[in-house]
């Protein structure tokens, strides 16, 4: 199939590369993108195409970007009259997801959420949660690749909920570890904290350089926690917990 990906970031480029591996023709739009994006797109085997051409040719649009850009991309694609399969693969709250779906009224909308690392065929699986009436059709796009699709519902929202649930646990744990290292450093007891890595629940305490390592993704994880907070609010749960953890990423940027 002919697929357009917006945009080939750290995750989107790897998802797109697996689509190329599966035999699909995958486009991207170089205009306005960084040199790093160009390098990732080239490595993935993507075809550089002007926006209008990419949307016109595509049977499927895959939107995988930072959450703060997802609705704008849907609006651009919708304004171009796209009427194929639109796969929204960003960590969005129910409200943002509805906004994205409304922006592509002529398309068949599939909610998606990636759980795990970018797909490279390593030991940790990359699960692509999918929900919507065409979820099975989208799952088939990655047949035989390092991506493991999981259809979790027939209505958009289920895949995002599955993704958000894991992200809250996994990235929330990382945020707490960052705070723990920062507190230990303030008091000069980092070595004592790292010594607790041998405990069954101490795996996140192995590397005191963790705060610095996560600085490179804080710009993206911060807005994701905004979406998580709204998702929790929507479910009648404690959205303020995610808002508090969001401040960890704010201070790392």
Give a description of the structure:
By secondary structure, the chain is α/β, with parallel strands linked by helices. Helix content is 49%, strand content 16%. It has eleven helices and eight strands. It has helices at residues 12-21, 35-44, 51-57, 70-79, 94-103, 135-141, 158-187, 190-194, 210-214, 218-234, 239-252, and strands at residues 2-6, 25-28, 47-48, 60-63, 85-88, 108-115, 126-131, 147-153. It has an eight-stranded mixed beta sheet with strand order 3-2-1-4-5-6-7-8, sandwiched between helices. Helix 6 links the parallel strand 7 (126-131) and strand 8. Helix 7 packs across helix 10, helix 7 (158-187) packs across helix 11 (239-252) and helix 10 runs antiparallel to helix 11 (239-252). The protein is globular, with a radius of gyration of 19 Å. The N and C termini lie far apart (39 Å). The model has no long low-confidence stretch (mean pLDDT 96).
Key attributes of the depicted protein:
globular, single chain, 253 residues, 49% helix, alpha/beta, eight-stranded mixed sheet, 11 helices
Quick description:
This protein is an alpha/beta fold. It has helices spanning 12-21, 35-44, 51-57, 70-79, 94-103, 135-141, 158-187, 190-194, 210-214, 218-234, 239-252, and strands spanning 2-6, 25-28, 47-48, 60-63, 85-88, 108-115, 126-131, 147-153.
Class computed from helices, strands and strand pairing: alpha/beta
The Cα radius of gyration reads 19 Å
State the low-pLDDT regions, or none: none
Number of strands: 8
Please, what is the average pLDDT? 96
Helix content: 40-55%
* Separation of the first and last Cα atoms: 39 Å
What's the quaternary structure here?
single chain
Backbone shape: globular
Largest sheet: spatial strand order = 3-2-1-4-5-6-7-8
Biggest beta-sheet profile: 8 strands, mixed
Query: How large is the count of helical segments?
Result: 11
Work out the strand percent.
Answer: 15-25%
